[in-house]
Amino acid sequence: MKTASALRRLRLVSAPEAVSFLLLLVCSVLKRTTDFNAVPVMGMIHGILFVLYVIFWADAWNRAKWSFGTAALYFVLSVLPTGGFFADRKLKREAENAVIASRARQEGIVNA
Fold this sequence. Notes:
Layout lengths: L1 H32 L5 H26 L3 H12 L3 H24 L6
């Protein structure tokens, strides 16, 4: 269950991190084309969400025992503007599978 919790935490921050990245890009364009400047605020919000993503990503990598390739994929998704949405979908499936595997181990169905 610790694995599923780590995956849920990462999933919880992945979509908001992606939204904040897109909003930061919009704010950057608006800063250069208008007098509107929300970059400092959106930059801080996005920075906090990105740091949380990296912390939760490292925890999930450790608990889920991902291969280097899987861990690298989730990290690359965090730096792509819409990657967090794809990470969210993949993490949802992975968390569901982790819960199923945990329940199977508890019931003695699988020795894993």
